[in-house]
Amino acid sequence: MKEFVISEAKVETAVLVGLITQTQDERKTNEYLDELAFLAETAGAEVVKRFTQKLPTANSVTYVGKGKLEEIKEYIRIEAEEDREVGMVIFDDELSAKQIRNIEAELKVKILDRTSLILDIFAMRAQTANAKTQVELAQYKYMLPRLQRLWTHLERQGGGSGSGKGGSVGLRGPGETQLEMDRRIILNRMSLLKERLAEIDKQKSTQRKNRGRMIRVALVGYTNVGKSTMMNLLAKSEVFAENKLFATLDTTVRKVIIDNLPFLLSDTVGFIRKLPTDLVDSFKSTLDEVREADLLVHVVDISHPGFEEQIEVVNKTLADIGGGGKPMILIFNKIDAYTYVEKALDDLTPKTKENLTLEELMKTWMAKMEDNCLFISAREKINIDELKSVVYQRVKELHVQKYPYNDFLYQTYEEEE
User: What are the binding positions for GTP in this chain (predicted)?
Assistant: First the structure.
């Protein structure tokens, strides 16, 4: 059976394709393509060109219009003549089996969509048996409705109604038979993986019950906002942190002690726009840490131009997985990397978000969130003492509510005069 994802990181050249639609303006499309380029880079590809087209909605047959597809095809042909072969074309939305089949037939190169690219990165990042099982299940869920495309080499053998039209005598059906066989193999494999994940869920649930009478705090946020760096600071641990998307797949739980108060801190997988539903379903056991947390620490990259939309994406995903409505602290990270565009003195137009200084932005959000937001730099260790103080106060409040008769495990004693 043909593979549909990159199995290992290779330096391949990639072309990106996105749409400007009624619900997605040019600025947003360019921002999404920036993120898609970062995803491609994380997967090991080098982006050499971007194509965008303005359409009311995606074309149901080829995603983009016929003229734009011809333009992409011509670019690939010219690059091939110059010995700069394009390895793949990546589309910024999930494609149907029909769309992939039609685009492949026209462009004659590997076609990936946003979902298959994210799945590939997850497959590359998965380290533990738990993560590998979750990723494999998500890949099979993605592959199942697209099986027919993977067997296009058998098309000339299939079909035929018995009237002599559209098929060869003695060669009718084997393509379909093989397709059904693969479907059955995949369904059986998915069933086995679900059983494994159910076992893992049971083990994880038992582990969570045995963690004692401690408040659980979960770090949540968009991918690549600095959650793992923050985890390392608070827990004095060595969780893998890298400036790439989805550097953390497996949930890491550490016992943290601030002053006299112990609590459990978990670092979770980052969220992203257009996160495949199959991934959310497959990562149930990982996301249970978020669902069962007493306090969420939502980490935001304030240096990212679209951080407000990232906050919305995270809040929506939390609501989707049943983690909404929990006590939350908003932590704006990477203040050391924040930049703004200073307005000219003679410019009388109203200030936009891009023109706000860090101080002005801080006042805006602190007024909106009251005492539930902080501004820090985990990398440069700016305002970390304030972060520890706020987390301590919030955890202490929750601890007293949840375990009113349980003394803190670590007492501090002031020396008597």
Answer: 221-228, 246-250, 267-270, 333-336, 377-379
